[in-house]
């Protein structure tokens, strides 16, 4: 399993994996009061089924934890990942149901 570098493209408001000529990404909205909304995950069709989306989510969640942000997972893919890996619920903002 390849280890892709997580890039936080702050200008584009998205986390990225560059995989060959492809771009896998998670778009976000970050507030000034320490909240981050993950709004959309996109993995090119050519990369589907390789676990790249899950690895991207895992690295993004680790980065959010390191930065001590409160997570609001609006993206269904991210919410589904958290449901399958309930330990990550510790990052979800209190009162938000995954």
TrEMBL record:
GO terms for molecular function: acyltransferase activity. Gene3D superfamilies: 3.40.630.30. PROSITE patterns: GNAT_YJDJ. It comes from the Bacteria. It holds the Pfam family Acetyltransf_CG. Residues 7-93 form the N-acetyltransferase domain. Keywords: Acyltransferase, Transferase. InterPro entries: Acyl_CoA_acyltransferase, Gcn5-rel_NAT, GNAT_YJDJ. Its EC number is 2.3.1.-. This is GNAT family N-acetyltransferase. It comes from Dysgonomonas termitidis. The lineage of its organism: Bacteria, Pseudomonadati, Bacteroidota, Bacteroidia, Bacteroidales.
């Amino acid at each position: 399993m390849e280890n892709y570098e997580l890039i936080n493209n702050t200008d584009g408001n998205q986390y990225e994996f560059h995989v060959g000529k492809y771009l896998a990404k998670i778009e976000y909205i970050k507030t000034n009061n320490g909240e981050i909304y993950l709004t959309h995950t996109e993995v090119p069709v050519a990369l589907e089924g390789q676990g790249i989306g899950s690895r991207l989510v895992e690295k993004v969640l680790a980065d959010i934890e390191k930065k001590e942000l409160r997570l609001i997972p609006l993206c269904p893919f991210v919410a589904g990942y958290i449901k399958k890996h309930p330990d990550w619920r510790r990052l979800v903002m209190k009162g938000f149901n995954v």
